[in-house]
Amino acid sequence: MNYTKKLVFISIALAFPFFGHSQEVIFEENFEGDTLNMDHWNYEEGDGCPDLCGWGNNERQIYDRNYVEVKDGNLVITAVKEGDKYLSGKINTKDKVEIRYGEIEVRAKLAEGKGLWPAVWMLGHDISEVGWPASGEIDIMEYVGREPQRVFTSLHTPASHGNTINTKKVFIEDIEEGFHTYKAVWTEDYIEFFIDENSVYKFVPEKYDDDHYPYRKPFYFLINMAVGGNFGGHDVDDSIFPKKFYVDYIKVTKL
After folding, report:
1. Is 142 a catalytic site residue?
2. Residue 112 catalytic?
3. Torsional class of 38: left (φ above 0), alpha (ψ -120 to 50), beta (otherwise)
4. In the record, which residues are listed under signal peptide (predicted)?
5. Please, what is the average pLDDT of the chain?
């Protein structure tokens, strides 16, 4: 793949010193204005059929771009129930913004309620060629409403995927209140996750091969809010809708 032609990378050298060093921002998305920046993002729509009906996890929602908006400096994804259908939103940066290594920081406000599954995550750029889990997956933040006050950070590899052992569930009493920051420090040799600047999980693989560490290639971002499913929970509380998931920014800084 010719990354010069296909990918958009934003590199900004900050003008002020930070402990004697400047920080180079590789990519920054602040969701300004009132429309999604289509130089960075793609919409994903439908129910995943025919290849991944239920998006591979028996999820209930149908993704529709009308439930994704940019407002007041935030990305806002809304989940609703209309009749017997659940509608929500999902976007990704595939073939537009793809990152290899860096300090990835996301500021977001969760949507709570049984059956909701908001997430900010990443997939390997080669997923169309090699499939999942060979592509690898980095889950910077996952929240499931059936387990309040808890956040998941996980990694899926060919050696451990689906019900992965490379995961950490963190109890945070006020996680549903206001905005919080979620960070992944991704290097050639390890990935470490932080919530509100506190380290919660560091992954160092047993081996540095494609089965155990498929993280030495570019990945792209995904942001979505699923409803139900194997992980989100099949017992959905219909009284909660509509619900909104807010993302203030994503920033990737070179290490």
Report:
1. yes
2. no
3. alpha
4. 1-22
5. 93
